[in-house]
């Protein structure tokens, strides 16, 4: 039986994003909307997308293979493989089974885990499964891998600019540079029809825009306040946001995240004693008697606390938005793209010993806030230094993508939509534009079996 382990967390990470993007400025002109609607109103710059050459299986295969190669992973040393996704292309067969093709080649088939699905929360559920396994009596001493990936597409209209695509692969085990706090996860789970995908013949969701924002902010209120309560049980000096070095959020679009940090400050304001409130939040006394549940669309509260929290946002949250701003919403991998973004924004010396809170949200709805501590080992060649170096190499690929005009992007989306449920099918998207090492769909046969190859 394996020994009880400590400092369980993320040992290595790999990020995937598409090799093509559409510029949001160009998209504003193409859609004939007001200047700044997508770039300022949503806070987005570029949106990555996939042609019909890529699907959820190929995206996750790409991220997994890169993680294995970059970290020289022995597949016999992996005992669990978890996938989080809401990009469902089969009602029975999991994405994880396709990923096993890489393991089976090495004769490594004793690998637990399958897919977790609940909108954008699936990646977090998969991650918790892996962490819990390593910390449990079921653990056999091997490491786990978690893949969170999605292709987010919308029909023509106001929601389309909030799309995106991506995947994050994470190696999980003990003695990690990114360590998960024990006993302080705070979850909020309930039922809502804010965003859902009941039409299995379509990639597109049903979205109640106003309701999903309310659900997101309500979940944030509940998770944050319970998280603070649990943290104070561990550390009586815990002071909410001021005690955290970073606050990361699931990112449907960047402007919502800025509003969310303001919302966290509003919660700290409501929770503060009268004396602390006067000292910490000067000039905001007109909001003393406001109630959380009545302020989700209160513009005065939003504006006042966004102004108040501007410097806190710049320090604790904005560095996490680089990927989201330039790739778009990656659904289950969005929060973890945010973690990648924050890590590459600093040097290892600036990160050691820091504590981050992470808020994960999935419509329908499921949400959790939890925290990660960064190790204090900053020696040359340390796990933290190697992790950040590999992520910097990956993120640098953002500048090597191909910009596609909105008319071409629209045509490629039309091809995806038209052929979403077609079999047999041979994709028409270009292989030449894909990054080396990318898996792509070769064909779907008459039995709807999918075949893939990897671009060299």
UniProtKB/TrEMBL annotation:
Instruction: State the InterPro entries in the record.
Output: HMG_CoA_synt_C_dom (IPR013746), HMG_CoA_synth_N (IPR013528), HMG_CoA_synthase_euk (IPR010122), Thiolase-like (IPR016039)
Where CoA binds, per the record, is at 255, 259
Secretion signal span: none
Any idea which residues are catalytic in this one? 86, 120, 250
What positions does the domain Hydroxymethylglutaryl-coenzyme A synthase N-terminal occupy? 6-177
The answer on whether this UniProt entry bears the keyword Protein biosynthesis reads no
EC number(s) from the headed UniProt entry: 2.3.3.10
Gene Ontology molecular function: hydroxymethylglutaryl-CoA synthase activity
Q: Which UniProt keywords apply?
A: Lipid biosynthesis, Lipid metabolism, Steroid biosynthesis, Steroid metabolism, Sterol biosynthesis, Sterol metabolism, Transferase
UniProt pathway: Metabolic intermediate biosynthesis; (R)-mevalonate biosynthesis; (R)-mevalonate from acetyl-CoA: step 2/3
Specify the Hydroxymethylglutaryl-coenzyme A synthase C-terminal domain's residue ranges: 178-455
Name the reaction it catalyses.
Answer: acetoacetyl-CoA + acetyl-CoA + H2O = (3S)-3-hydroxy-3-methylglutaryl-CoA + CoA + H(+)
| One GO process term, biological-process aspect | sterol biosynthetic process
Q: Which CDD domains match?
A: init_cond_enzymes (cd00827)
Tell me where on the tree of life, at the top rank, the source sits: Eukaryota
Q: Which Gene3D superfamilies match?
A: 3.40.47.10
Q: What does this protein do?
A: This enzyme condenses acetyl-CoA with acetoacetyl-CoA to form HMG-CoA, which is the substrate for HMG-CoA reductase. Catalyzes the condensation of acetyl-CoA with acetoacetyl-CoA to form HMG-CoA.
Q: Which family does it belong to?
A: Belongs to the thiolase-like superfamily. HMG-CoA synthase family.
Stated name of the protein: Hydroxymethylglutaryl-CoA synthase
């Amino acid at each position: 039986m394996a020994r009880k382990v400590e400092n369980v967390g993320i040992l290595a990470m790999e990020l995937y994003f598409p090799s093509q993007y559409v510029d949001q400025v160009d998209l504003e002109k193409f859609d004939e909307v007001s200047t700044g609607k997508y770039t300022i109103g949503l806070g987005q710059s570029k949106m990555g997308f996939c042609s019909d050459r890529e699907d959820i299986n190929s995206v996750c295969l790409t991220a997994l293979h890169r993680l294995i190669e970059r970290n020289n992973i022995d597949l016999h040393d992996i005992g669990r493989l978890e996938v989080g996704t809401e990009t469902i292309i089969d009602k029975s067969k999991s994405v994880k089974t396709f990923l096993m093709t890489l393991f089976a080649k090495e004769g490594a088939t004793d690998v637990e885990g399958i897919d977790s699905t609940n909108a954008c929360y699936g990646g977090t559920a998969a991650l918790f499964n892996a962490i819990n396994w390593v910390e449990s009596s079921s653990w056999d001493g091997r490491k786990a891998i978690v893949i969170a990936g999605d292709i987010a597409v919308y029909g023509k209209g106001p929601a389309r600019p909030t799309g995106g695509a991506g995947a994050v692969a994470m190696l999980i085990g003990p003695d990690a540079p990114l360590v998960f706090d024990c006993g302080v996860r705070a979850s909020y789970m309930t039922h809502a029809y804010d965003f859902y995908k009941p039409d299995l013949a379509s990639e597109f969701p049903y979205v109640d825009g106003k309701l999903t924002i309310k659900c997101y902010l309500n979940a944030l209120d509940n998770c944050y306040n319970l998280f603070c309560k649990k943290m104070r049980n561990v550390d009586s000096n815990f002071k909410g946001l001021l005690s955290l070095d970073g606050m990361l959020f699931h990112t449907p679009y960047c402007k919502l995240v800025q509003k969310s940090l303001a919302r966290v400050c509003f919660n700290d304001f409501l929770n503060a004693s009268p004396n602390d409130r006067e000292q910490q939040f000067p000039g905001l006394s007109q909001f003393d008697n406001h109630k959380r549940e009545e302020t989700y669309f209160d513009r005065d509260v939003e504006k006042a606390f966004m102004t108040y929290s501007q410097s806190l946002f710049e320090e604790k949250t904005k560095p996490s938005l680089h990927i989201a701003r330039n790739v778009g919403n990656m659904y289950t991998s969005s929060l973890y793209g945010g973690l990648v973004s924050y890590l590459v924004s600093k040097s290892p010396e600036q990160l050691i010993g820091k504590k981050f809170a992470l808020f994960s949200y999935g419509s329908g709805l499921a949400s959790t806030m939890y925290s990660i501590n960064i190790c204090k080992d900053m020696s040359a060649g340390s796990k933290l230094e190697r992790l950040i170096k590999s992520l910097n190499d990956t993120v640098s690929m953002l500048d090597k993508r191909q910009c596609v005009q909105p008319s071409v992007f629209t045509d490629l989306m039309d091809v995806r939509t038209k052929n979403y449920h077609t079999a047999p099918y041979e994709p028409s998207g270009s292989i030449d534009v894909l990054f080396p090492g990318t898996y792509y769909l070769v064909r779907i046969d008459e039995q709807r079996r999918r075949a893939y190859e990897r671009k060299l």
